[in-house]
Design brief:
The chain contains twelve helices and nine strands. With 360 residues, it is α/β, with parallel strands linked by helices. The chain has a single domain, classed as TIM Barrel. Strands 1-2-3-4-5-6-8-9 form an eight-stranded parallel β-barrel, surrounded by five helices. Helix 6 runs parallel beside helix 8 and helix 9 runs parallel beside helix 10. The two termini are 36 Å apart. The structure holds alpha-D-galactopyranose.
Length: 360
């Protein structure tokens, strides 16, 4: 009798699993969120040659962000040479399949080309020269994709990591002072007046960082700079942000009349760390059932907030497709695997996926 009953439950479980598998085939994140906002994913040109990843992208997402291909280093390796190949192929894929594209990014302190800040004998260039280079770069890149991209991350991460400081002491800042930020937006707007222009940053839910980002945004808005929106990168973890911090950030930024997007979402199973370090002896890296549960709860919580703020949130983008490959593998701990996304290493939906599409 007991055996019969457990057989019955096993059969029930199997049919429930089959039903879920069926649902994955028929509806994706983009369909569940159709009435809310586009659901995007960061991709490389290589991802778009892998049939399994392509199938997952097309079933789940309706917006793409080039993960690296449009950054200044990769796309503009020498002053008089652009490398359009990867960026063009991502944009062509998006056009073929009717996907939106967010451009990422036009001005950042990291992944810059070697030539950018230096003259021919290796000295730092003047402010005039650097702003001219920025203008040429932005004008050329934005023009090329005009009408095919609907948004650009214009300035990325200009706020310092040190909470007692304001703007990051990057070479942009050292050479131009704060002006490069407004200029970047002006150049982008001149090149494509229809593009939605973003300031994009991380840890924006931490109160001290939120205040400094807000201060910058307010300065830009008050000065009439053509900024339309703010990107909350959302490189999060199991304990961060809490719901209140996230809500505060969305409310505060949107109070300036800016739209908000979640631009680089992932939920690391480890606490946030920025500096590279060695893996400690005994430090494990498995996605245990307990961690998977916590990750599911965090994803459920943040998506609930996103849905509540659908009037100001105009997009949610994941940073990478599945746990098969994420930028958080080996970062900041070489040799350590991470599992921050909604799809597992076999491209199958994880527990968190089912919570994200369950609107109860
Ligand atoms: C930042 C950048 C992204 C990406 C991630 C980590 O958030 O905006 O382009 O480089 O770091 O990969």
């Amino acid at each position: 009798m007991v055996e019969k009953r457990s057989l019955f439950f096993v059969a029930l479980l199997i049919s429930a699993m089959q039903l879920k598998a069926q649902q994955v085939k028929s509806a994706g994140l983009k369909d569940y969120y159709k009435k809310y906002f586009p659901i995007g994913v960061a991709v490389s040109a290589g991802d778009l040659k892998d049939p399994g990843e392509v199938a997952l992208i097309l079933s789940q997402f309706n917006s793409l962000t080039p993960e690296n291909a449009m950054k200044m280093g990769p796309i503009h390796p020498e002053e008089n040479r652009y490398n359009w190949r990867d960026a063009d192929s991502i944009v062509a894929f998006a056009q073929l399949h009717g996907l939106k594209v967010r451009g990422h990014n036009l001005c950042w302190h990291s992944q810059t080309p070697r030539w950018l800040f230096k003259d021919s004998i290796g000295n730092l260039v003047s402010k005039e020269v650097l702003l001219k280079r920025l203008k040429d770069h932005i004008t050329t890149v934005v023009n090329r994709y005009k009408g095919k991209l609907y948004a650009w991350d214009v300035v990325n991460e200009a706020i310092d990591d040190d909470s007692t400081k304001f703007l990051r002491n990057s070479l942009w800042y050292q050479i131009c002072g704060p002006d490069f930020i407004a200029k970047a937006f002006e150049y982008a707007h001149a090149a494509d007046p229809d593009a939605v222009l973003f300031y994009n940053d991380y840890n924006t839910e931490r109160p001290e960082k939120r205040e400094r980002v807000y201060r910058l945004l307010k300065q830009l808005v008050d000065a009439g700079v053509p900024i339309n929106a703010v990107g909350i990168q959302a490189h999060w973890s199991l304990n961060e942000p809490d719901q209140k911090e996230l809500v505060e950030t969305i409310k505060k930024f949107s109070s300036l009349g800016l739209k908000v997007q979640v631009t680089e979402l992932d939920v690391s199973i480890y606490p946030w760390e920025k500096n590279m370090r060695k893996r400690q002896p005994g430090e494990t890296d498995a996605l245990t059932p307990e961690l998977e549960q916590k990750q599911m709860e965090k994803y459920a919580e943040v998506f609930k907030v996103f849905r509540q703020y659908r009037d100001v949130i105009t997009g949610v983008t994941f940073w990478n497709i599945s746990d098969k490959h994420t930028w958080l593998d080996n970062y900041p701990v070489p040799g350590r695997k991470n599992y921050p996304l909604l799809f597992d290493q076999n491209l199958q939906p994880k527990k968190a996926y089912w919570k994200v599409v369950d609107f109860k």
